[in-house]
Amino acid sequence: MNGFTYYTPxxxxxxxxxxxxxxxxxxxxxxxxxxxxxGGGSAERSGLLNRVRRSLExxxxxxxxxxxxxxxxxxxxxxQGIDLCRKxxxxxxxxxxxxxxxxxxxxxGYGMANEGDVWDFYEFIRKPKACLPVGSVVTIAAAGSExxxxxxxxxxxxxxxxxxxxxxxxxxxAIMNPELTMTLPPYQTACGCADILMHTMERYFNHGxxxxxxxxxxxxxxxxxxxxxxxxxEDPGNYDxxxxxxxxxxxxxxxxxxxxxxxxDWATHRLEHELGGMFDVAHGAGLTALWGxxxxxxxxxxxxxxxRFARNVLQVKPGADxxxxxxxxxxxxxxxxxxxxxxxxxxxxxxxxxxxxFRELARKCSVAANDSLGVVKKLHQADMEAIYRAxx
Length: 392
Ligand code: NZQ
Ligand code: ZN
Description:
alpha/beta; Rossmann fold; Dehydroquinate synthase-like, alpha domain; two-stranded antiparallel ribbon; 15 helices; 49% helix; globular
């Protein structure tokens, strides 16, 4: 196993009605004037925003509001948020929504706490030194941004989607009420489950040492999400299934399932970020559209890990040899994705890149990755282009 630092400073408040604690939690973390940041309307329609406003009022927290965050959150709104927060003397950012809102909140927080253009942090020109405190009320189990050190923002000009990873951006608290996720359309529930699985799979498919405990936690998490996603496709109002998936979403991306490993592969995520930037697809669906192709491209470099995945996660019976077991495992994963309505190739995703767009996707991905990405198999620009093309 490798040595590791496990840093999870986020206070988690989990359960029914917990959004009523938002105001008190802001106070507890030193805030008195908040930016209430949210998305395109679901939190208003469900009445959640009014409950949160009441909680702020009761705690004596004043606030200004900025809604309109879209999936694949945009840099222009981040700039708007920074201007608003400066003008209004905001000292805390409360994100009410999913990964997109939380990521936008983190970006505004970086912009508030550092000099210069916040986009520099996403282009890896500079590293942020601090972040205004961010808290969240989570409304979709998916990205895991509520406990992660990551913020992913899209710059409209050129459709460039980039992530900034920094511990300063880890939210100080996360309010998680599984009931809040019951208004999600089935497609978004499924996209969320796919992303949660991928955050653990990216760490699981590594090329270094492993810990038995970490591997076991990862496998249990993946089986739990798969089982409960099926329950939710039939019964979206099932509280226990919502709760299992929601907690898995946070644990999948707070570092727990990577302890003792080399950190994992992350190629599928990096390839997807370019798809999201160019075609504005839902992140989870972009991942499932690429994963099978990636897996078939790289499995020969790390067969033992793929065999273990097939057996322990998908309960695939051993084939005539390891290769058959691995390929059956990859197909079984694609069958699972289809069973929850997720695409397993670009056509099913509704994306048909032109020849020139295939080249451009690979070029941008290679620039973002500083030439190569992945650890199971190091992928260079030609490999990236081959995967995009084979995923059609
Ligand atoms: O804007 P509203 O109206 O709220 O609609 C949202 C949005 O359309 C809707 N929604 C959210 N909660 C709802 C709801 N609809 C009904 N009821 C509810 N309770 O769902 C849609 C998707 O929301 P979004 O926040 O975009 O989803 P998600 O959490 O999947 O976030 C995706 C973004 O996170 C990034 C992705 O790349 C993508 O930009 N990621 C962030 C990561 C991180 N910060 O650690 C890691 C991930 O790998 C990922 O890259
Ligand atoms: Zn993800």
